[in-house]
């Protein structure tokens, strides 16, 4: 959705400035590349930073288990008791889990941090998926130009159709009306493209 909306809006701005087909193609491909790389680097940095923060928290938990095993065991037992486990059974389970330090670390990390050591998300996979998703979306409004179209109309129609379809697909996961969801996505994309068209028109008049 990011790639689709941003690139159709970009091309709309160039259309507003009455740019040539070759300029539109260049702008669309440049928008695709720059946006995809920006999304990939941003996602990589975000996931990598989050992983580093979680790794540091896991190490804090590892030291706590080593330095204060009784307190950590009592904390785990209390956690299970709050979830409805009988206190004596909770204490027995916590004691059993603490027999193996690595199992204890995994359980405490999951309960307290919501992560499991060694199973943090891959920053490279996140970056690659963001790059691919943005590129696919951004390619849609450029396709008509690449196929020979020389006006923005074909690009706008194809992008509009894609926006509506994406909205309909999203409705399968949200439970909302497919028609309303598709119309909402189409309306938001049209608003972005219309605003950028106006910017292009005004900038074209100035230059």
**Unreliable stretches covering 5 or more consecutive residues:** none
Largest sheet at a glance? none
Number of helix segments?
8
Overall geometric form: elongated
Strand-pairing-aware structural class: mainly alpha
End-to-end distance, in Å?
31 Å
Can you give the mean pLDDT? 92
Question: How do the SSEs run, as a string of H and E?
Answer: HHHHHHHH
Strand content: under 5%
User: Number of folding domains?
Assistant: 2
Rg from Cα: 26 Å
The strand count comes to: 0
Structure description:
- The protein is mostly helical and 207 residues long.
- The protein has two domains: 2-39 and 124-206, no CATH class; 48-113, no CATH class.
- The chain is built from eight helices and no strands.
- It has helices spanning 2-16, 21-67, 69-82, 87-97, 101-113, 123-146, 152-174, 178-206.
- Helix 1 packs parallel to helix 8 and helix 2 packs across helix 3.
- The longest helix is centred in the first third of the chain and has 47 residues, at 21-67.
- The chain is elongated and about 75 Å long.
- The mean pLDDT is 92.
Please outline the helices and strands.
Layout: H1 2-16, H2 21-67, H3 69-82, H4 87-97, H5 101-113, H6 123-146, H7 152-174, H8 178-206
Helix pairs in contact: 1-2, 1-6, 1-7, 1-8, 2-3, 2-5, 2-6, 3-4, 6-7, 7-8
């Amino acid at each position: 959705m990011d790639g689709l909306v941003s690139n159709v809006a970009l091309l709309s701005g160039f259309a507003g400035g009455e740019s040539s087909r070759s300029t539109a193609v260049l702008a669309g491909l440049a928008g695709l590349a720059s946006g995809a790389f920006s999304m990939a680097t941003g996602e990589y940095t975000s996931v990598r930073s989050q992983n580093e923060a979680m790794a540091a928290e896991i190490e804090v938990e590892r030291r706590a288990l080593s330095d204060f095993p009784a307190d950590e065991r009592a904390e785990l037992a209390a956690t299970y008791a709050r979830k409805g486990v009988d206190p004596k059974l909770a204490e027995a389970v916590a004691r059993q889990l603490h027999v193996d330090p690595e199992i204890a670390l995994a359980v405490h990390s999951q309960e307290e941090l919501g992560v499991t050591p060694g199973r943090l998300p891959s920053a490279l996979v996140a970056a690659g998926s963001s790059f691919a998703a943005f590129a696919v979306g951004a390619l849609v409004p450029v396709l008509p130009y690449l196929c020979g179209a020389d006006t923005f109309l074909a690009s706008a129609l194809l992008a509009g159709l894609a926006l509506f379809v994406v909205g309909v697909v999203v409705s399968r996961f949200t439970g909302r009306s497919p028609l309303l969801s598709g119309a909402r996505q189409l309306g938001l994309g049209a608003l972005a493209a219309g605003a950028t068209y106006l910017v292009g028109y005004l900038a074209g008049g100035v230059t």
